[in-house]
Write a structure and sequence with these properties.
Oligomer: single chain
Distance between the termini: 45 Å
Protein name: SET family sugar efflux transporter-like MFS transporter
Number of helices: 15
Subcellular location: Cell membrane
Helix content: over 70%
CATH class of the largest domain: Mainly Alpha
Membrane topology: Multi-pass membrane protein
Number of strands: 0
InterPro entries: MFS_trans_sf
Keywords: Cell membrane, Membrane, Sugar transport, Transmembrane, Transmembrane helix, Transport
CATH topology of the largest domain: Growth Hormone, Chain: A
């Protein structure tokens, strides 16, 4: 019965996997392409990232308003896939800095909005097939993590074997599959039906709760992004591990992450989402301290497993937590979640560089642990202020 209820949603998950794999192939590869293939200085990656993420954040907000207003989602997903295909094709034909900073940054930025759009639609698709939203959110997050296990590894393998331009050609082929699946899998009249507002909830109060939930997500997302920026160099340069160690650590992390995500519906039903997230935040603090103390290869593997555990729990719980404050606007809440994740990523790179310039990359990890430690206090502050608002109302 359990698997039967999910079977109609498998094509939708495959559509999400294909679109996510496209982004996973290109997002981490663009830094290598700009610096190594085009010979640009490293700061140029910050320029590209700012343009690309800024485009995505603005697009997420615009599409969220349209989705919550009842607009059809089908053309939005197709627009994302078409933009990705355009950027990948043009860069494979004209591999230049001007192309990357114009068509590449804007079209890849538009295409990255598909993550928020698909998650906004996922809740409605789950309800159509009587699957709990929290459970389907976990499947969607696990699908995304699986795509990120495959995408970056495949891109760098192809670049090493056939050259960087082949990555854009391969990703363009995958984008064609994405477009075919979009046309055949997604209902052309599909809309993300919003659940009704919470009974007795004030729109102003719920908006405040959403902002505090976003602040909690932002703290943990920043901590994770700082670790992603610092760990590869920390392991190789400061610990002295072999050059392949960071890649192996990332594979271990994402492998454990998938299993952790699948456990989140059970945690929500047994302990509640707030308690589960508080425990996850404390686990994040401890895990980052463990990674900062790594001295050997086995310790690195253990730290990567712990990182996958806490981030998988955070990924599965976080989006459901933010969506719980939707007040009839789930797409806006979902866009808020993804914008927090993306903005934290673009801020983490320069911040990690400045901290490492001041001290070292181990110091970046200690700072990340401190940032993660602020998350429980942000949640406690939000809960306390929300209760005070309700009692005085």
């Amino acid at each position: 019965m359990r698997s039967a209820s999910l079977r109609p949603l498998v094509p939708f998950l495959f559509l999400q996997f294909t679109g996510t794999a496209c982004g996973a192939m290109i997002i981490p590869f663009m830094g290598f392409f700009l610096v190594e293939a085009l010979g640009q200085p490293p700061w140029m990656l910050s320029v590209y990232s700012a343009m690309m993420v800024g485009t995505t954040v603005a697009t997420n907000r615009l599409l969220a308003r349209r989705i919550d207003g009842g607009a059809q989602v089908f053309p939005m997903v197709g627009f994302s896939a078409a933009c990705f295909l355009t950027a990948a094709t043009v860069l494979s034909l004209i591999p230049a800095l001007a192309t990357a900073l114009t068509i590449g940054a804007f079209c890849f930025g538009f295409s990255a909005s598909a993550a928020s759009t698909m998650f906004s639609l996922g809740g409605s698709m789950a309800e159509r097939h009587t699957v709990p939203r929290d459970r389907f959110n976990a499947y969607m997050r696990a699908t995304m993590s699986t795509a990120w296990m495959v995408g970056p590894a495949g891109a760098f393998l192809v670049a090493d074997a056939f050259g960087p331009l082949m990555v854009f050609r391969l990703s363009a082929l995958v984008a064609l599959v994405w477009l075919v699946l979009w046309w055949r899998v997604l209902p052309h009249d599909v809309r993300a039906d919003a659940p009704g507002p919470v009974q007795g909830a004030s729109p102003v109060g719920m908006a405040f709760d959403l902002r505090m939930a976003a602040a909690f997500i932002f703290c943990l997302a920043c901590a994770h992004a700082l670790c992603l920026a610092a760990l590869p160099i920390f392991y190789v340069r400061e610990v002295g591990l072999p050059g392949y160690a960071p890649g192996l650590a990332f594979s271990v992390k994402t492998f454990i992450e998938v299993f952790a995500i699948f456990s989140t519906p059970v945690l929500i039903s047994r302990f509640g989402i707030k308690r589960s997230l508080l425990a996850t935040a404390l686990l994040a603090v401890a895990t980052i301290q463990v990674m900062a103390a790594v001295e050997t290869f086995p310790q690195m593997v253990a730290g990567a497993a712990l990182e996958g555990l806490y981030f998988g729990l955070f990924a599965g719980l976080g989006i459901s937590y933010v969506q719980s404050f939707a007040t009839g606007r789930p797409a806006a809440a979902t866009a808020t979640y993804w914008n927090c994740m993306m903005i934290s990523g673009i801020l983490a790179g320069p911040a990690a560089g400045l901290i490492a310039q001041w001290q070292d990359f181990q110091a970046v990890l200690h700072v990340a642990s401190g940032v993660a430690l602020t998350a429980p206090f942000v949640m406690a502050l939000g809960v306390g202020l929300s209760r005070r608002r309700r009692t005085t109302a």
